[in-house]
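Design review, sub-item: ligand-bound model
Attendees: FS, YL, KQ
YL presented the inputs for the nicotinamide-adenine-dinucleotide complex:
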Amino acid sequence: MRLRRAVVTGGAGFLGSHLCHRLLQEGYEVVCLDDFCTGTSANVEHLLEDRRFRLVRADVTDYIHVSGHVDAVLHMASPASPIDYLQLPLQTLKVGSIGTLHSLGLARDKQARFLLASTSESYGDPLVHPQPETYWGNVNPVGPRGVYDEAKRFGEATTMAYRNAREVNTTIARIFNTFGPRMRPNDGRAIPTFIGQAVRGEPLTVAGDGSQTRSVCYVDDLIEGLVRLLHSELAGPVNIGNCGEMSVLDLARLIIDLTGSSSDIVFVDRPQDDPTVRRPDITLARTALGWEPQVDVRDGLRRTIEWFRELTLTPESVVVPQQSQVPLLVSGVTGS
Ligand code: NAD
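KQ shared the predicted structure:
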């Protein structure tokens, strides 16, 4: 019997690496395409021994070539944390636009199911709360975050156009804040930043007065939602995220508590256009996919803290996203 085959762009990133692992467990062959601008081959090192897994260094904004059959294309590639996309603004715009066009072209050629990893940032700083998929959002296109938000919104529009005009079997996941092992300690997102600071006994830097809210989802739950969406016939967009909303200040306090740290909290300037509230309405995922998060946020944080403690949390461990740091060659073959 022919093995199902999936192409995962950005498969060496935080979410992509968990997704590759899960797709292998589901019985897929997996071709992982990554340019390592914010990801690393270390994230998928444990998969390299599996003959069904191929890791290929490729910038999907150049071109994508994969020979043989492909049943699913999951377009995860994009810088995702504010620090990353502010440092890589043009790459972010290109991977959300040109990279999405190339990934959709591959799905069209192979008659594969296509999944776009979109984001709750499509809602911008929302004026509707919680956010249902029917809400169009409140995005500042010319603010610093516009490079990410608008690239994703362009990606969503392109995906719908390929569905309607080119008959590609597409779907769109709007992913809300997700955390777990393999996040980079220095990627600037609240959870890795707070854990690193708490573990090192440094003050936790809370933006603004910390009253802005986030709803954070453990990575295993998120991946389960993506796989169910892939295997459904939904076009989306579908919100995938945890509804357990908390203030950033409470999140910082919880991390101090769970790490047993004696760190203080200090307040720093809030970034421009930082969303004030964030909570998904997951009615659609619940009813159409039978999906909802299973992992309690405290348990997820404990698992993440454990993983972070095993890392050397020194400034030298910092991975700076720069094109020049892309390794020359990684094992595996191209799909050709
Ligand atoms: P990440 O930075 O860890 O992973 C992104 C991966 O894409 C990296 O491995 C990077 O090297 C790769 N990449 C970037 N540009 C590329 C290009 N041109 N060609 C090939 N590879 C490229 O980020 P993540 O948190 O794992 O996010 C994965 C996807 O999920 C992104 O599309 C992101 O927008 C989306 N998302 C994530 C979250 C979250 O909370 N983690 C929330 C919403 C949406």
